[in-house]
Every structure is written in structure tokens, then in C-alpha cells.
Request: fold
Amino acid sequence: MEIKTIMVVGAGQMGSGIAQMAAKSGYSVYLNDISRELVDKGLAGISASLDRMVKKEKISKDEKAGVLDRIQSAVTLDSAAQCDLIVEAAVEKMEVKAEIFKKLDQTTPAKAILASNTSSLPITAIAAHTGRPEKVIGMHFMNPVPVMNLVEIINGLATTPEVTEAVCKTAEAMGKTPVECRDVPGFVSNRVLMVMLNEALWELYEGVATAEGIDQIMKLGMNHPMGPLALADLIGLDTVLAILQILQEGYGDPKYRPCPLLKSYVNAGWLGKKSGKGIYNYYRS
Ligand code: CAA
Reply:
């Protein structure tokens, strides 16, 4: 199972980060989204991230050009026919992922591996929308992808060891450390992380401390690189809410109930950094 060409489906912050790291590691990459504008936005994000690395002399201008050269735009899934591995990083909605995986199953060669970057949807359920559940796996990258070392590898019920091995090797080739786990709601990472972020939101809701105070306590007291509320904004409050709802449904345990403040913010369209406002303000004055 040699991986040479990779398609990333979804050119948002996660998808573009994955495409960047794959191209930086020498893979041929197709970056797909539903419109030219969305793909271009993803490419602009990659270019900005590479500029940061050039400025810090981590890569040269030529290397930056090489990375961008290895990424081709794709506004349909047709180019998946040329790919050995597809990493889906579309929105966290099962109906959207089901459609994508059905199409990928028809378009890609039988040997191709279909991975999802889902942060909490069951891999086994996604795999059931294909005729090759043994080749479906979770490849959960962390945000921001160029910086974070982990890729959480989630084995569905039918995933074969050969597929897991091929995907772990690819993650390593991308400079990441793969760590395996079973397909349970929230996997390992978000089952732990979301409880902490939600608890910080409850503290804010109850007026236990200011947002800055809560974040400072966790940064200075626990050595976390950023506070839980700033991290919730970085991940996206809509994503945090969606994951908590999956945990609540999956385990039936009230400890995962989302804080009402989180629901209000999402209803208001205050989704965090990506929308310019969340718990904090990100508007440029
Ligand atoms: N592209 C390239 N480089 C980037 C980058 C990007 N998008 N973002 C940050 N960097 C680099 C910076 O250039 C800098 O590099 P140097 O160390 O060489 O100077 C380094 O990362 C640190 O960045 P900054 O100095 O700008 O800021 P910082 O020190 O405050 O770090 C952070 C920012 C890396 C985001 C750090 O605060 C952090 O690690 N936060 C926690 C992030 C985290 O927990 N992520 C997981 C979220 S959960 C998830 O993703 C899964 C899910 O399913 C929800």
C-alpha cells in the first residue's frame, strides 16, 4: 500500500493545513472543495502559513514554491481517481460525510484508502456508506496542523492492520506522531478535551471569573499553551458544541451536557476566531 498521491476534501483550516503538510513532505496533493473560491481561500491560507516559515528561516522561498507547486486545485471529486489516499476534512455533519464517502467509493481505485479527519463522528458509521469498510480509517489532525505533532488514528470495526500501518507511515512521513485508538465517541482526545472546555464555559456562565481570568489560571497554573476559552475559540464554538452533543448522545451521560452560554454564542453566529467573534473579539480595528 504505497501512498504517493493524496486528495484532501475540504479546504478549510484543517483541510488546508493537512494539504500543506502532505505537500511539504513531497506528496502530490489535490485540494478539493465545492467552489473555486473556497479552494483559493485554502491556498491563500497555506501561502500565509508558509510565509511565516520563510520569515523565520525554517524553509526557503524555493521550498515554499515547491510546496505550492505540488498542490493542485480540484472543485470536483473526479481527481480522486488518481489518488492512493483521500483525507476528508469537510464539515462535521454525518449526512455531508456520507455523501462524500459514497462518491469517493465510486470514484477511487479499489486499493485507495479513505480517511476522515472527523473530530468525533463514528468511523464505523462513515465506513458503512462505502463498499470497502476495511479501507476506511480516522486520521484526526490537530489545529493548527502545521504546528501540532499528533495524528490520532481511529480504527473502525472493520479497518485492517495493513490500512492502519499505511496511514501511520504517511502521518510519520508528514512529520507527525500517529497514536492509535478505538472508535468510541470523541475518541481519546475530544472525550477529555471537550469536558475541560465545557467546564470553563460553565465557569464563565456562572460568573466564577472573567474569561481572561479563567484562561490565565489554566495557562499559568497548568502550563497550558493557551487557556480553554481561547482554545474553544480557536477550534470553533460550533465545532465544540457539535462534539459535546455527540458525546452526550453517544454515552447518554449528563456530564457532557453543553453549557447554555455555548449554545447562545453559536445561535448568535459568534463562532470564535474564524467568525471574528467568539468568547473574545478578533475584529481588526
Ligand atoms: N502555520 C505555521 N506555523 C504556525 C501556525 C500556522 N498556522 N500557527 C502557529 N505557528 C507557529 C509559529 O510560527 C511559531 O513558530 P516558532 O515557535 O518557530 O516561533 C509557533 O507556531 C508558535 O506560534 P506563536 O508564537 O504565534 O503563538 P504561541 O506560542 O501562542 O502558539 C499555538 C500558538 C501553537 C496555537 C499554541 O498556543 C498552542 O499549542 N495552543 C494549543 C493548541 C491545541 O490545543 N490544539 C489542539 C486543538 S484540539 C483539535 O484540534 C482537535 C479537535 O478535534 C477539536
